[in-house]
Predict the 3D structure of the following.
Amino acid sequence: MATLKVPASVASPAEDCEQLRKAFTGWGTNEALIIQILAHRNAAQRKLIRETYAATYGEDLLKDLDSELSSDFQCVVLHWTLDPAERDAYLANEATKRLTCSNWVIMEVACTRSSFDLFKARQAYHARYKKSLEEDVAYHTTGDFRKLLVPLVSAFRYEGDEVNMMLAKSEAKILHEKISKKAYSDEELIRILTTRSKAQLNAALNQYNNQFGNAINKDLKADPKDEYLTLLRATIKCLTCPEKYFEKTLRLAINKLGTDEGALTRVVVTRAEVDMQRIKEEYHKRNSVPLERAIAGETTGDYEKMLLALIGHA
Amino acid sequence: MATLKVPASVASPAEDCEQLRKAFTGWGTNEALIIQILAHRNAAQRKLIRETYAATYGEDLLKDLDSELSSDFQCVVLHWTLDPAERDAYLANEATKRLTCSNWVIMEVACTRSSFDLFKARQAYHARYKKSLEEDVAYHTTGDFRKLLVPLVSAFRYEGDEVNMMLAKSEAKILHEKISKKAYSDEELIRILTTRSKAQLNAALNQYNNQFGNAINKDLKADPKDEYLTLLRATIKCLTCPEKYFEKTLRLAINKLGTDEGALTRVVVTRAEVDMQRIKEEYHKRNSVPLERAIAGETTGDYEKMLLALIGHA
């Protein structure tokens, strides 16, 4: 399901570090070499490279990348080189800051990671920011957004396949009742969405569809200006079919006048080692054009090359 | 700070298992031998004993203890032998069941464990109950209790000493404002109590005292029949001075007509390896009688012996 391509035989971390060091020296930076190495190493390998680099040169690889590269290419390489848990902590922290705030990104991190990966992001958040993720989310949000986002980032959902069908039926009914009354931030509705396992939630939503004739997100269709309702729909999508959520996020990022590089980078970097293959299939199906062609049409240079490498085209 | 006494030289897990096996066989059970072994092994050692026992005899030590022992003694030995994370999961699960429900125990587990120990309890909860702790707490509580307990059990508080004094001052003001209005389940008040690190919360409560002339729990003094308010006060106590909270819990358990063995067992078993020394000091100071004497006065037989061993008197 991942699109990351790691060569069958990989250079040692020491060799990779030496090559990267070479890429930084002399006239100009050798971006192609940086892509050739970093875009073809998995998270564990990148971690070793960072550790080896620090031990060998006494410097932080991320800092050197930061000073050698620029603009969107810099951004994608830095995000990619970070450990996934640190990256999630970073993304979530940026999303709680005033100038870069995004309820959307907070929700995405909370809902599309495995329970343990979300926990590792919370640990990385402690280490880096000397605060807890939920503390910042709670402090920087208000009203309905807080009611939804704080339990989402604090959840440690059960991940087994077991489903209680009686419960699914009764909770489908609760969801329908609340939605009929437009009580979108009702505490029972939020309880169900934020605490149930994804399997259990899925069963409840199937029951919803069976009993009431509509998919829940159809009943939640609403004014795109209602920001909370839009987030609520995206939450359900993330929890039940993340590849569709990411397809749409990529579509909007690519089709946007001027391209939303932030979103494009985020999705590619966070999903390349997870489910980018499925996302690509969804993208092609929905847009009648392969993702790599869409990305190539909207980006250029090393940024384009890095993105294409991460989605498996290099 | 622990009261558990482990001998300088401990028998091997295999030897311990052999002795325990002997204690179970023949006419009657050798309770003294069980106490001699289990009440003097730390959590890691008890875990090894359970594993060795299962590997050697193909049986679960807990099941054998369960069938050999009875009544309060059985209960304290079983609780003690469990791994702390499993024990917390068990205590919390019992506390969400209709017949044994206790908002008090849920709060105690959530507020007096370290952040990582609470997380380990949540993991143990998944493994044992195929559900998440927060899921059950949210499902089995309502209203103000749910608003407080769900974020408490979901928290992963930062544990560093860093304190933001500006924030402490502003949040002291928020707390005072809400309490003056008797808005005890206000979402800002709950946010502060459930997300801030214990150090940060303590700073805010010191500021509260400085700025408004009263300790917060004095301002929360109220009708003991108001169950939510009583729980809120206990929450603050657990977060800021757990030894006082546990002293009081022991005092009430011991002084109760008929003794509350459940609470007595729970506090002794969960704190013997943590801070029972401090709790004993608090108890002696507050009741003018040493805890061991108070326990000896209210309990008998093997149950008494086991409790006394765990609090360091054997």
